[in-house]
């Protein structure tokens, strides 16, 4: 059996024409390495497919260059963009990120603390709420708990923030809409609850009429039926949906009963899915900057590693994208 020798840091140095100390500084993200030398070293690393020996590095400096991000087990499309933002921020700071998915039982146990104490990571960022006793490590890496998902991988915290609902309702009211319908997802979903409460509060404060809240269970067919089955003499002129999928269903329901959007019915969504802008009409929606959230959370982790307190106030990651599906109310 032939054993293939792994390239070493000295091999990289020889190919790049620099000292191994300079290579080491570059791999640590030292900004004093000139751009020209950094490019030579990066090319040599790529050509040799060099991978640092993290165990040896940790033994020498008690530093691994790795951060852990802990997620609940589950499927959330938003997590892909969030993690991309975190990866980019970590890379810019000279760190690698590893994602660890844990079931609820392990999240509520000592597993996160064990990760922090393993010596494999310099810090651990948990994207869910941890029990108070598990938010710190005895003598290992720092742990930061930033609740973004609950144990079922449903968006909470900044991902369920609903303040834009008041802006949507206010804008529609300013354009003559007086009776509104809200199409929500699962009634116990954290984001659904907050958006429904914000809708009802805004309608009440602006002295508008609510045609109710329909539980659509994130099913566009139910949303289409809710609009299609409105009474013939309904006063509803605007529908605010809990996400873009339900909004698309609402548009379909309007078209099926012979209404135009936004001529007869204005429709808004939430989450700004890629197809929202390609719809006819293009869908007004609330955009959530998942990528920026990931970068902000990773930056906060780095602050804690540097001995600073976590940033308590973060700017909103949502904004309304006004498109063609909303317009002035039409008298019926």
UniProtKB/TrEMBL annotation:
Molecular function GO labels: DNA binding
Keyword Transcription: yes
Record flagged with keyword Mitochondrion: no
HTH lacI-type domain residues: 7-61
InterPro entries, A to Z: HTH_LacI, LacI/GalR-like_sensor, Lambda_DNA-bd_dom_sf, Peripla_BP_I
SMART domains with a match to the protein in the record: HTH_LACI
The protein's name: LacI family DNA-binding transcriptional regulator
Lineage: Bacteria, Bacillati, Actinomycetota, Actinomycetes, Micrococcales
């Amino acid at each position: 059996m032939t054993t293939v020798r792994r390239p070493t840091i000295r091999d990289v140095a020889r190919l790049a024409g620099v000292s191994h100390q300079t290579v080491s500084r570059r791999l640590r993200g030292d900004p004093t390495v000139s751009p020209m030398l950094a490019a030579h070293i990066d090319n040599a690393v790529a050509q040799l497919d060099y991978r640092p020996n993290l165990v040896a590095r940790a033994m020498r400096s008690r530093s691994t260059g790795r951060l852990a991000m802990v997620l609940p087990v589950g499927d959330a499309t938003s997590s892909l963009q969030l993690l991309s933002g975190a990866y980019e921020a970590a890379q810019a700071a000279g760190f690698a990120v590893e994602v660890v998915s844990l079931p609820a039982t392990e999240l509520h146990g000592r597993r996160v603390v064990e990760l922090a104490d393993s010596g494999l990571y310099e810090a651990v960022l948990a994207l869910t709420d941890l029990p108070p006793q598990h938010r710190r490590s005895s003598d290992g890496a720092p742990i930061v708990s930033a609740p973004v998902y609950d144990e079922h991988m449903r968006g909470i915290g900044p991902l369920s923030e609903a303040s834009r609902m008041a802006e949507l309702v206010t804008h529609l009211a300013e354009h003559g809409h007086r009776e509104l319908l809200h199409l929500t997802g699962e009634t116990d979903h954290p984001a659904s609850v907050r958006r429904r409460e914000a809708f009802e509060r805004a309608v009440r404060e602006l002295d508008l009429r609510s045609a109710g809240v329909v539980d659509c269970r994130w099913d566009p067919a139910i949303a289409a039926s809710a609009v299609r089955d409105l009474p013939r003499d309904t006063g509803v002129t605007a529908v605010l949906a809990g996400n873009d999928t339900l909004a698309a269903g609402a548009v379909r329901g309007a078209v099926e009963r012979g209404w135009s959007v936004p001529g007869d019915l204005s429709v808004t969504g939430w989450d700004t899915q890629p197809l929202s802008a390609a719809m006819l009409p293009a869908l007004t929606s609330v955009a959530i900057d998942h990528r920026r959230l990931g970068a902000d959370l990773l930056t906060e982790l780095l602050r804690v590693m540097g001995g600073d307190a976590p940033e308590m106030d973060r700017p909103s990651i949502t904004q309304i994208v006004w498109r063609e599906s909303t317009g002035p109310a039409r008298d019926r």
